[in-house]
Amino acid sequence: MGGCFSKPKPVELKIEVVLPEKERGKEELSASGKGSPRAYQGNGTARHFHTEERLSTPHPYPSPQDCVEAAVCHVKDLENGQMREVELGWGKVLLVKDNGEFHALGHKCPHYGAPLVKGVLSRGRVRCPWHGACFNISTGDLEDFPGLDSLHKFQVKIEKEKVYVRASKQALQLQRRTKVMAKCISPSAGYSSSTNVLIVGAGAAGLVCAETLRQEGFSDRIVLCTLDRHLPYDRPKLSKSLDTQPEQLALRPKEFFRAYGIEVLTEAQVVTVDVRTKKVVFKDGFKLEYSKLLLAPGSSPKTLSCKGKEVENVFTIRTPEDANRVVRLARGRNVVVVGAGFLGMEVAAYLTEKAHSVSVVELEETPFRRFLGERVGRALMKMFENNRVKFYMQTELKEVVLKSSKVVRADVCVVGIGAVPATGFLRQSGIGLDSRGFIPVNKMMQTNVPGVFAAGDAVTFPLAWRNNRKVNIPHWQMAHAQGRVAAQNMLAQEAEMSTVPYLWTAMFGKSLRYAGYGEGFDDVIIQGDLEELKFVAFYTKGDEVIAVASMNYDPIVSKVAEVLASGRAIRKREVETGDMSWLTGKGS
Fold first, then answer.
1. Nearest one of 77, 122, 95 to 555, comparing CA atoms
2. What pLDDT sits at residue 44?
3. Of the residues 160, 398, 516, 557, which has the maximum number of CB atoms within 10 A of its CB?
C-alpha cells in the first residue's frame, strides 16, 4: 500500500428496486398485522408474574438404576494432556488425563454441539475448537463463552489399572448442565414499581448478567427489558440462517425465566434514565426504580443515507421478523446486498440458494479488507464468485431508485453497512458517552456513575492484553463475558475483564474462526493454502501476533486464544517459519 497513488474514485451506482403489485398488500399486512402478544403487559399494573411453573431439574442424587458404569480404558492408554471420547452405552463421555489424574465430562460443547475431543486442553480447562468456549476439567463449569451451560462431570475410579466411569443416564443424554441458581424471594416481584436490578437490553450481555446474579445466590428482584418482542435469542444466527423461526432461536425457554424469577419486559423502550433518583421511564410512561443498573442496549443498524432510502423492500436485519421477511421476498428474485462486512456476506451466502441472483455493493476493494486483510478477503471473494455472487466493488451507492441508467436491478435490497450504539436515550442522563455514542467503562464494566454498569456492543472497555487500550468489540462472546463481569461487580466481587476476543462467521457451509484484536495490523502471515480455503492467517503489529484467523485448520484458533489467554506473547518470527508444532501441541 504505497502512499503515492491517489485513491481511485468510487464508481457511482443506483439500485432500482422493483416491487411486484401483489406483494405490496401482503407486506403491509404482515408488518402491522397481529404481532405476537407481549410476554408481559406494558402498563405498570398488569405486569404480574407467574412463578408457579417450575423447571424440572434432574435429581442431584440419581438412583442406582439410573446410572451406568463401565471400564473405558487402561490407565496407560492415555498420556498426560490427552483427551479421548469413550462410550458408556447410553452415550459418550470425554475422558481427559491431566497431571496424572483422569477426569470425565460431557463430550459436546453445549453452545453448538462441537466435539470437545478436537479442542484444546491447557491450564486445567478444555477450549471448544469451534467458538472458543472453555470448561474447567475438574468441575465441568463454563469459564469462558459463548453459550450459557456447563458440562456434566462424571465419577472416575481406578481399579486394577483400569479406568471406570460412572454416570447418570439422564446426564449422558442431556449433554449440558445448567448451574444451580437461586430463585427470586422478593415479595414485590412482578408488580411493584421498584426493582433491585434493572437490565436494559436482553442480548447475551443482559441475559448472562441476570443468570450470573442468580448463580451467585442473588435472590432479589431482577427485571430484564428489551425492545424486542421475543425472549432473549441467538442473534448471530439471524444472518447465517435467515429462515430460522424465533422459537428455534430462544436461548432459554419461557419456563426458565419463570422458575428463576427473571422478569422480562418485551417491547419495552426506555426513554430516559435519571441517575439522581435512580429511575427509568419507559415509552408507555411506566416508571421503574432500581438500585443497580446494567446498560446493555446493543446497537442499531446504520441505514442508507442516499436518495430513495425509504423505498419499500430495502431492509436492515436486526430481528427474526426482518430476517424471515427478507427470505420470503427473496425467493426466486434479484437481491442486492449493500456492504461486504460480516452481516452482508453471511446474508449474501445464505440467499444464493434461494434467490435468482445475488449482488454485493461495497466501497472497499475487497470484502472484509479492514478486518481480515487483502489476501484473505480476496480468497473469500473468490468463493462467493464461484457461487454466482456478483460484486460491485469500490462502488458508492448513489441512489435507490425505481428507474434509472447505471442500475443494478433489485427486488430486495439488504443493507449491512455497520451499526451505531443504541444509546440515544442516555444523552441527558449524566452517564458518560464518548463522541461516537459508546459508553466508556472500566475493567469492571462500571460507568462514570456508581451502581451503573454497561456491557456488550455499546461499550468501550480497556483490553487487558493490548495494554488496556480502550476498544469496542461488538461480538457475541465478548457480550457474554462482559455481562458476567458486570454481575460479579454488582455483587462486589471485584472481577475484571480478561477474556481473549473470539468470533466466527459461516458462509456456504464453511466456517472462519478468529481470535484476538487485529485493529492496526501491519502484516499478515499466511500458512496453508488460501486457494483451497485451508489456511491460518496471523495478524501482526511490529514484532507481535495480535490476532489469528483460520478456515479448515482447527483447533489452531482456539490454541492461539489459549496461548494469549495464558499471558504469553506470540512473536512474529514464531509463525513466520511455518513450523507450528509449538502451537498444534506436537512440539514442546
1. 122
2. 34
3. 557
The answer to whether the Cα torsion of 412, 417, 421, 423 is positive or negative is negative
Q: What does pTM read for this prediction?
A: 0.89
Q: Which of 119, 144, 126, 130 is nearest to 499 (CA)?
A: 144
What's the DSSP call for residue 10?
P
- Judged against a pLDDT cut of 80, whether residue 68 lies above it is answered with yes
- pLDDT (0 to 100) of residue 29: 34
C-alpha cell read off for 499: 477474556
Nearest to 420 by CA among 305, 302, 269, 339: 302
Q: Show Cβ contacts of residue 2 under 8 Å, excluding neighbours closer than 6 positions.
A: none
- C-beta atoms surrounding 9 within 10 Å: 8
Closest CA to 487 of 215, 220, 256: 215
Distance between CA atoms of residues 501 and 146, nearest Å: 11
Instruction: Report the distance separating Cα 569 and Cα 583, nearest Å.
Output: 13
**C-alpha span between 437 and 501 (Å, rounded):** 22
Cell numbers placing 55: 423447571
Look at the block and give the residue holding cell 456476506.
Answer: 345
Rounded Cα–Cα distance for residues 571 and 580 (Å): 12
Q: Which of 7-11, 150-154, 250-254, 355-359 has the lowest mean pLDDT?
A: 7-11
For residues 83 and 436, what is the distance between their CA atoms, to the nearest angstrom?
47
DSSP helix/strand/coil, 327: helix
Q: Which residues contact 369 (CB under 8 A, 6 or more apart)?
A: 377
Closest among 422, 420, 439 to 275, alpha carbons compared: 439
Mean pLDDT calculated for residue range 285-297: 97
Q: In which band, very low, low, confident or very high, does the pLDDT at 577 lie, cut at 50, 70 and 90?
A: confident
Q: What is the maximum alpha-carbon separation in the chain?
A: 83
User: Any residues with CB less than 8 A from the CB of 555 and at least 6 apart, and which?
Assistant: 118, 119, 120, 127, 129
Residue 202 CA, chain-centre distance (Å), reads 13
User: For residues 115 and 109, what is the distance between their CA atoms, to the nearest angstrom?
Assistant: 7
Place of cell 442406582: 64
Q: Where are the beta strands (DSSP E) in 239-297?
A: 262-265, 270-274, 279-282, 287-295
pLDDT value for 210: 98
**Sequence-distant (≥ 6) Cβ neighbours of residue 304 within 8 angstroms:** 314, 338, 397, 400, 415, 417
In percent, the amount of the chain with pLDDT more than 90 equals 79
Contact yes or no for 116/108 (Cβ under 8 A): yes
- Least Cα distance to 458 among 298, 271, 302 occurs for 298
Contacts of 499 (CB under 8 A, 6+ apart): 144, 145, 477, 478, 481, 565
Q: What's residue 23's pLDDT?
A: 44
Contacts with 587 (C-beta within 8 Å, 6 or more apart), sequence order: 579, 581
What residues contact residue 426 under an 8 Å CB cut-off, 6+ apart?
A: 273, 295, 433, 439
